[in-house]
Amino acid sequence: MTSPQSEVRGLLDSRSEAAWNKDLDRLMSLYSPDIVYFDVVPPLRYAGAAALRGRFSDWFDRWQSPIGQEIHDLNVVVGGDVAAAHMLIRASGTLTNGREVGYWVRVTNCFQRSDNRWLVTHEHVSLPVDPESGSVVMDLVP
User: Fold this and answer.
1) Which fold has domain 4-126?
2) pTM
3) Residues 30, 56: contact at Cβ < 8 Å?
4) pLDDT tens digits for 107-121?
């Protein structure tokens, strides 16, 4: 029997695999229909599966290569049918303009178990900002 923590970790691994393969249906199957998603790009939030599907479709279209999603420093806390996780993720690959990228983002997730499976109910992805310049800092490493 697997622990709830390992089930959540498995969901996150599935999310990384779906991003790598740009498998939109598989990726969306991991999110609640009423997901609230805070991303590094506008708007302030994406609410609901249709909005998130559009966001992910746009994201996939910007990459020429598979999208690397290496998870580091993962911490998962579970209580009953809810869970939370925070981690660092290194996104990497080749954009459609040919530029190779590799940068770290901070990610926090909330999960709820329904019908014996975990779904992401909230995701927050962020990049640090230099307060002096107001610019995003994309060259930090853990």
Assistant:
1) Nuclear Transport Factor 2; Chain: A, (3.10.450)
2) 0.95
3) no
4) 999 999 999 999 999
